[in-house]
Amino acid sequence: MPSLRAITRLMTSVPLVVAASLTATSSAHAVAVLAAEVRSMPLAERVEALGTLKANESVNITSNVTETISAIHFDDGQRVKEGDILVELTSVEQHALLDEAQVRVDEAERQYERVKALVAQRAASESLLDERKRDLDTARAVLVAIESRLSDRLIKAPFDGVLGLRNVSRGTLVEPADTITTLDDDSVMKLDFTVPSIFMKDLEPGLRIEARAQAYGDRVFEGVVRGVDSRVDPVTRSIQVRAIIPNPERTLKPGLLVQVVLLVDPHDGLVVPEAAILHQGQDHFVQVVVEGEKGLTSERRQVRIGTRKPGLVEVREGLAEGDRVIVHGHLKARPGQPIEIQSTADDPIDPTAAQEPST
């Protein structure tokens, strides 16, 4: 039969064993999770559209007169400067008329100076001097008119840019309606696109846009809104927007179809990884990491979400910058249950860079 001392020792040790067992059980029930910190970053609502590129300046090179081409001074696709001579038209007759007009001006000037000297000597009347002055003015006007017609025989580039394909040859008879070639200023591209009129209140010059063309894969071309049309299309209920995109490498071409993302309502907002959001009907929740007397536990909190970005969701209500939310393991972590953070995703944009917590 056990002694009284042995029984007492056994009864005293039972609570210690039970307590140790409970502690071990509690530690074993801590759920391993992966958490991410709530961060603030620039955000904007993304409005997607299709648009067509246009050159900053574009013109068809034509002739002002009907005449044959005597010389061509450009090649297909050549870059030119403002004032460069592109085409010369036949001008033999105009040069002859110019020489004749210059002779008439010289003679009118000589007669005017002669009569002016006579008037000074009181040997001629003022009316005769006025007549010679009119003759001189008329001769000069004729000379200017011929010079203008002669300049029409020299077709020049109106601005810097790149020429298109040549449509004429030497000896071709061109008329004012004939297109000799095209000229585009492609240093900056215009991008016209339409957006639903519900965004009209947010549209203003200076908004950022991102453009992608299928020809260039995932390359993004950035620009800004230059202007917004003054009218809404009554059929489509959309409004036209014009953006400009710098094109220093001359990569983009007029007429190219591009996918446009217009960034409206730019602001700074709090974001969490998309994996942190729990959906229940129309409501949204997150599991927040809370540190207390019992260590780390999880707390279910309702939030109001806003703008989305790839992999991220804006939280407009319910969280503060610096809070930590569970991004993996939240389905196992019940509110108030102890948790163990195996890893913290420092970058909320890529919270899955860390490994999944082990179970």
Explain the overall architecture.
With 359 residues, the chain is an alpha+beta fold. The chain folds into four domains: 28-42 and 269-353, Beta Barrel (conserved putative lor/sdh protein from methanococcus maripaludis s2 fold); 47-56 and 185-268, Elongation Factor Tu (Ef-tu), domain 3 (Beta Barrel), CATH 2.40.30; 64-87 and 156-178, Beta Barrel (OB fold (Dihydrolipoamide Acetyltransferase, E2P)), CATH 2.40.50.100; 91-152, Helix Hairpins. The chain is built from three helices and 19 strands. It has helices spanning 4-28, 92-120, 126-151, and strands at residues 31-37, 39-61, 67-72, 79-80, 85-89, 154-156, 161-163, 173-174, 181-196, 208-212, 221-232, 238-246, 257-273, 278-280, 283-292, 295-309, 312-317, 324-328, 339-345. The protein is elongated, with a radius of gyration of 41 Å. 23% of the residues are buried. Mean pLDDT is 84; it is low at 10-28 and 347-359.
Total of DSSP H or I helical runs spanning 4+ residues = 3
- CATH-derived topology of the largest domain: conserved putative lor/sdh protein from methanococcus maripaludis s2 fold
Structural class call reads alpha+beta
Q: Rg from C-alpha positions?
A: 41 Å
Contiguous runs where pLDDT drops below 50 for at least 5 residues: 10-28, 347-359
User: In this structure, how is the largest beta sheet organized?
Assistant: 6 strands, antiparallel, barrel
CATH class of the largest domain: Mainly Beta
Number of DSSP-assigned strands: 19
State mean pLDDT (0 to 100 scale): 84
3D shape: elongated
* CATH architect. name of the largest domain: Beta Barrel
User: What count of structural domains?
Assistant: 4
Strand/helix succession: HEEEEEHHEEEEEEEEEEEEEE
Roughly what percent helix?
Answer: 10-25%
Cα end-to-end separation: 48 Å
Which strands sit side by side, in order, in the main sheet? 2-9-12-11-10-13
Strand content: 35-45%
